[in-house]
Amino acid sequence: MSLEFKPITAKDIDRLTPFYMMRRNRTCDSVFLESFLWREYYNVRYAIWEERALLWLMEYKGRVFSAMPLCREEDLEEAFGELERYFNEELHYPLVINLADEEAVRCLNLPPERYLVKEEEGAYDYLYSAESLKTLAGKKLHKKKNHLNSFIKKYEGRYEYRTLTCEEIQDVWKFLDRWREGKGEDVEEHLDFEVRGIHEILRNCCSLNIRMGGIYVDGELEAFSIGSYNPTERMAVIHIEKANSDMRGLYQLINQQFLIREFPEAEIVNREDDLGIEGLRKAKMSYCPIDFARKYLVEQVSFGESSEKGEGFGWAEHIGALAGDEEERLQAAGLGENTLTDGKMEEKRRKTGEKTEQPQNSHTEEICYADETEKQECRGLWHEAFPDDSVPFADYYFKEKVRDNRILIKREEGKLASMLHLNPYTFVCREGRWRIDYIVGVATAKDRRHRGHMASLLRRMMEDMNQEGVPFTFLMPASEAIYRPFQFAFIYRQPKFRLTREAKERLFFSPLAADGESGETKLAASYMEEWLGARYEAYCSRDEAYVKRLVKELASEDGTLELMYDGERLCGLFSEWGLGEREQRLLYTEASFAGEDRAGEKPAIMARITNVEAFFQMLSGKDEAEYRRERSDRQREADSRTEPRRPDGVLGVRDPFLTACDGYYNIFIEEGHARAEKRASGKGSEREEKILNLSIDSLAQWLFGYRGLDEILESEGRGGQAPGWTGRIRPVDGVLIDEVV
Asked: How far is CA 275 from the centre of its chain?
């Protein structure tokens, strides 16, 4: 029987949990939450084999790998063999297992002529005595106890420990906002992946079997921790621990009290690995671990590319926490530092007008929008970052596209360190028209990477867009995992149309001139606009200037845009390009001349809401200019009004990256259109059944029609909880975004 792998969700916890307890395993992967947290980064999927084993399928940069089967020890050899068979016969791929636990490796005793088994030294988990961490007794932990006593003495009568439930989620987010702001940008990319992981836990806290606790000081949450329990090992697994590091001893207190209150039965504490970071290693060692949960890389060497060499695959050694460079390790981690330290919070970044300067390890940094000379300077970085782009295409891009785009750049010590390009398009949504930027060319110089440059550019860009009233921005990701922590989400699947055999034989194809100056460009633009408007509610508008530029873009890679005629009747447009292998670029025509390959559809465009109020106005079909007039009119009306109108509903938006979007919004629904107005503070006295809480990325997927609201809530374990007013909001019916740059 063939294995059927499917994505892991929060609602799978009851079905899968029994498999985690079938055999001994002291790693942090012995609890469900670890698998859940990695599900998006590694596209985690699972299959249940004969009700005896839980098997895994994951991906890393296009490579498929797995984890050790979860099953009884006596079934492990057979389950491993079934997984090997699936990889070899179904996937035609060697079996690679990452982070295999020591107990399973010892049990299997794999033959060296068939499998390379290598300890992953930088990935072992730190194990502690629960009793030692609860009491902090003994000379070795004396300094920790001094820190703890210092806090108790200073804040006596002002602090309390509380077990946290889903009701306290807002307290956790409020703390995270303060904690995140104080961390600066040296480790910004790490923090953004980390916040994403915490975000996923809190969104699904009602479904996940987790334990949470926090320390309140003067009524304000100042520290919290999240953990899971492995009853087979009587082991607490600490996934997240955060505290206000300005309060000496607070880390020691949350560490101690969380174990005492939430894990009284625990004998061992697993505080996960150190990500290969020296500072984390020292911090974890300072708590005197009693052992380590060692992990191994298992690679089949009797299959395929390395069968003759008897060696492993180099790429496999770069998965997750074992990535060859620090940025990949931090991005893959997605979880907390667990540093157990009391270092001072870093200075907040400072802004000065159009340019941003900040001290960072004595380096001079500057963020600004490039002038015309600086735009051309970016070409060198473009070729370094995108070596597959041809010179003719780059010639076109830096002659045509940069004329009216904006390039946000970051300099370090005067040298161009990082850039992102904002290419403007007129975006049509229900007949309203908005200037929306398409993000392309996100790149960092090779010798300047892993310093948080990309994250700081994205933050500056989003803050500017929010202030400018730009509803959203979009991009085509090289990797989804890069942009998910910044709350980008897929909103469009790329359809695949193919000309039928009859169309190829019957129709006449007339190419437009390569210089884009043909008199038929206006005809092509008119056909495109009419074709798109009849099928989609949201798309980038086509006019004559758009078509002229498109023709030049296609010509840069030996491509053409061709008018399709059935006799004398214009019935479509077709284009393909490519200096080597030819690729279809677009096909707009009547249904009778094209077949759609739905199986070949794949997610293509990710979007990011940058201003919630403007986004709702865009969905209502209003023009950008009309939105700006109405915003001014509403402000004047609000200033003179004494009795505010009651909203039809309240929307709670969770945005850990762009705080200007975070908060509660009054929703007013008029004539089928919805308008959002941000509340000054909190959700007010509204009944809970009128409030819809969504993350900013889920909001985009719902309103762009990519995922239904019921599906989103169901995936978060909140099925059937959509307020009634949401049924009066109509998401976009059809999106098409097929631009390349």
From this structure: 20
